[in-house]
Each structure stands twice: as C-alpha cells, then as structure tokens.
Design a protein that fits this description.
InterPro entries: AAA+_ATPase, ABC_transp_ATP-bind, ABC_transporter-like_ATP-bd, ABC_transporter-like_CS, Oligopep_ABC_C, P-loop_NTPase. Pfam families: ABC_tran, oligo_HPY. Keywords: ATP-binding, Nucleotide-binding, Transport. Belongs to the ABC transporter superfamily. This is ABC transporter domain-containing protein. By secondary structure, the protein is of the alpha/beta class. The chain contains 12 helices and 10 strands. The chain is globular, with a radius of gyration of 20 Å. A hairpin with a 5-residue loop joins strand 1 and strand 2. The strands form 2 sheets. A 6-stranded mixed sheet has the order 6-7-8-3-9-10, sandwiched between helices. It has a domain of 196 residues: Rossmann fold. Helix 4 packs across helix 5 and helix 4 packs parallel to helix 6.
Length: 304
C-alpha cells in the first residue's frame, strides 16, 4: 500500500501481528482485439501494480468510481481470476499459484459476498441446501446435521430458521443478501470480501446489513475487504481506506484521516460528491477540524 504500513484501529488501537493478506505489485492486464479475432490487438491494464494489506480483525475499504479496478482487485484476491503479475500472501503463505489442497484451504479461508445475491444463489436449491453446500461439496462433516447447521446460520444473520426450506426467489433482496452472508460464514473464513455487497439494496436495508456485518465481525473476528463506490457507506464500516483510480491506489490510510484530511484531489472529489445533510460537517472539514467522532466503526480493542 502506498506510504508504507498505516496505523491500525484508530486512536489508542493496540499493536497487531503481521497482515492476514498482503498484495504486492498486483497487476491484471486484458488483451482485446478490435473487430474480432483478426483485428488489432490492444492491452488494457485494469489493475496496475497495487500494494495493500489487510490485517486481522479489520475492515479495509477499497473505493473508487466504476471502472477504477476495485472489483477486479477483489476477484484477484479471491483467486477467481489469475493476476498478470504480482504476488498474494495469505496468513504467511504465498498463495499466488496455489493449487489442489492449498487452493482448497484458501477457498475455505477467503469467502466472497457478491453484489447481486439472486445471481449468486442457486434458484433451484432451498436455503438449507445452499448453506450446507460449501461443506457437503468438500466432503466435510456438517456440525449437528444439516437442519441444525442451516438454522444456526440463519439465526446469526437475522433470518427465521423456519424458512430454510424456501427458495431464494421467496425472499426480499435484503433477506437474500443475508443468505449470501450466511453462506460465506459456513466454512468459518478468516477474510470475507464484500464486492459492492450492499449497493443494490434500499438505503434503509443497507443500514441494517451494515450493522449485521459489524456485529458478525465482533462475534467472529474475521477481516473484511470491503469494495464500494459509496464513501458514505465506507465511512461507517471501515478502519482503513484505499482509494483507487484507473487501476492505481492513489491514497490510503486510517478511515478518519482519509475523510477529514484527504491528500489526493481525486479523494477530495469523491468526498465532495457525498450528499450532506449537515453543513457544519463540511465547514469543519474545510477548516481542517474533524467533526469530533469521525467514525462509528468499533476500534480493534472493541472487536477483540
């Protein structure tokens, strides 16, 4: 990440061990041909040699406009896409070229919650089957049996266990996203990647899902890589922020610092685009004085 290692956990945050995830010079280029297979070849760099780290128990938000490369970065981290260059380390292991058992282990440790829950949930499967599938497909035992396991997961995300035999289409968008979150939790991950996980939800539902994400992190202690374009959302949930523009991280640091004293003009422009209902907040930021309590995100001490 640009600028070296940041402080973590906000004021008074305790010292922490090394990063859970470390990306170094992560790069993704796509080759395209205009006019079909015989057309002129061109190369597009979606992610351009980015460095960043995610530490245990924290939320790193990766933000930027559409096309900035943040979702491609998320897919590279989740190993849903191969990097053109660079390395990935997870829990002290080089997983850049992980295969076989090493890749299976990584898949359990890193889970993804996607933007559209309905496109990522099998419409022909009941919720109970969806929630137990990650274990069943790997030949792992389902603690307490499928029904009890699915019911416990549904309770954790605020859903009625009696509805486990329903299908995804029988739920609202917010409820379906809770199912997606529950499925991610099924294998006990260390890192959950939220790729625009709340951007398709109504504003009131967004707040409920964000509260859920914070609570689950308190309970289980995993980390988030939170991909978003909405800085208002990021401010509420993140400990640190990395700002992407055209495939490059242009600024990174503790959440409060990014919001109160942005260094890069692009970050300032993103902040200026946030709708405000409190003009005093804007005045204080322009004058260089923080609004007091800059973030409602729990500190690392609270997460422990």
């Amino acid at each position: 990440m640009t600028g070296g290692r940041d402080s973590h956990g906000g004021p008074g945050g305790p010292a922490h061990p090394g990063p859970l995830l470390r990306a170094r010079h992560l790069t993704k280029r796509f080759t395209t041909r205009a006019g079909g297979a015989l057309g002129r070849k061109s190369v597009f760099t979606a992610v351009d040699s980015v460095d960043f780290e995610v530490f245990p128990h924290e939320t790193l938000a990766l933000v930027g406009e559409s096309g900035s490369g943040k979702s491609t970065t998320a897919r590279l981290v989740a190993k849903l896409m191969k990097p053109t260059d660079g390395t990935l380390e997870f829990a002290g292991r080089d997983v850049t070229h992980a295969r076989g058992p090493d890749l299976a282990r990584f898949r359990n440790e890193v889970q993804v919650v996607f933007q559209d829950p309905f496109s990522s949930l099998n419409p022909r499967h009941t919720v109970a089957r969806i929630l137990t599938a990650p274990l069943v497909y790997q030949g792992l035992p389902v603690p307490g049996g499928r029904r009890a396991f699915a019911g416990e997961l549904m309770e954790r995300v605020g859903l009625d266990p009696d509805h486990m035999h329903r299908y995804p289409a029988q739920f609202s968008g917010g409820q379906a996203q809770r199912i997606g979150i529950a499925r991610a939790l099924a294998v006990g991950p260390k890192l959950v990647i939220c790729d625009e996980a709340i951007s398709a939800l109504d504003v009131s539902v967004q707040a409920q899902v964000m509260d859920l994400l914070v609570r689950l992190q308190r309970e289980s202690g995993f980390s988030y890589l939170f991909i978003a374009h909405d800085l208002a959302v990021v401010r509420r949930i993140s400990h640190r922020v990395a700002v992407m523009k055209q495939g490059v991280i242009v600024e990174s640091g503790p959440s409060a610092e990014i919001f109160e004293r942005p260094r890069d003009p692009y970050t300032g422009a993103l902040l200026a685009a946030i709708p405000r209902i409190d003009p005093e907040w804007d005045r204080r930021r322009r004058e260089g004085a923080g609004p007091g309590n800059a973030s409602t995100t729990p500190s690392y001490e609270e997460l422990r």
